[in-house]
Amino acid sequence: MERMILPIPTGVNRVLLHSCCAPCSGEVMEAMQASGLNITIYFYNPNIHPRQEYDIRKDENIRFAEKMGIPFIDADYDSDNWFARVKGLEWEPERGKRCTECFDMRFERTALYAHEHGFNLFTSCLGISRWKNMEQINGCGHRAAARYDGLSYWDYNWRKGGGSARMIEISKREEFYQQEYCGCIYSLRDTNLHRRQSGRDNIRIGEKFYHHS
């Protein structure tokens, strides 16, 4: 599958990429690097629970970033602040108000780092997942960018042009850890409930990986 050169915003060659995990960011990282962009990864995901899951996802992302020679910024795991941010939204459905607060929190921190370190553009790989609401994610990104003069959020659709298929191909090629829920404690709760209702076992943290076909 031939890779297209990205329609890079005018005057930009340096981008801060908020990454949630290696499977979602792999295609985005390769696409931007192939298009000549200077990328830095910003890993800020205090929503991920438990800590074991957080560490696995981060380590996988670091492993791939190092392989590609891409700088990796490891932000704080301030989960207490995340729980405070989503308090009262514990029973919101996936893609509901809790997710909006979660994206807002993560993008606000990303935008602050971008502003403080001379980036005028940031983006996220979150929208490449078919489980996510792209309009919801883009709205949060634009809101965060609007806090600072001269900063923009790049709302490129990473799924198009074969991006979704390459995401899976790269995950299998690199044998990434395959997370089975979005990340937070409430997502884990709801996913396990659905699995039990379907006669399946609960998720086992740290056990499932992509493999070559």
In short:
The protein has helices at residues 22-34, 51-68, 79-85, 97-116, 134-145, 163-174, 185-197; strands at residues 14-18, 38-43, 72-74, 121-124, 152-153. It is α/β, with parallel strands linked by helices and 213 residues long.
Q: Can you put this structure into words, describing what you see?
A:
By secondary structure, the chain is an alpha/beta fold. It has 7 helices and 5 strands; from the N terminus they run βαβαβααβαβαα. It has a single domain (14-197), classed as Rossmann fold, CATH 3.40.50. It has helices at residues 22-34, 51-68, 79-85, 97-116, 134-145, 163-174, 185-197, and strands at residues 14-18, 38-43, 72-74, 121-124, 152-153. A 5-stranded parallel beta sheet has the order 3-2-1-4-5, sandwiched between helices. The longest helix is centred in the middle third of the chain and has 20 residues, at 97-116. It is globular and about 55 Å long.
Shape: globular
Strand order of the largest sheet: 3-2-1-4-5
Task: Report the CATH superfamily.
Answer: HUPs
- CATH class wording: Alpha Beta
**Series of secondary-structure elements, N-terminal to C-terminal:** EHEHEHHEHEHH
The CATH topology annotation reads as Rossmann fold
Low-confidence stretches: none
Helicity, in percent? Answer: 40-55%
Strand content of the residues, in percent?
5-15%
Q: What integer value in Å does the Rg equal?
A: 17 Å
Mean pLDDT: 95
Query: Number of helix segments?
Result: 7
Largest sheet: 5 strands, parallel
Strand pairing plus helix content: what structural class? alpha/beta
Tally of DSSP β-strands: 5
User: How many individual domains?
Assistant: 1
The CA-CA distance between the termini, in Å, is 17 Å
Which architecture would the CATH scheme give at its second level?
3-Layer(aba) Sandwich
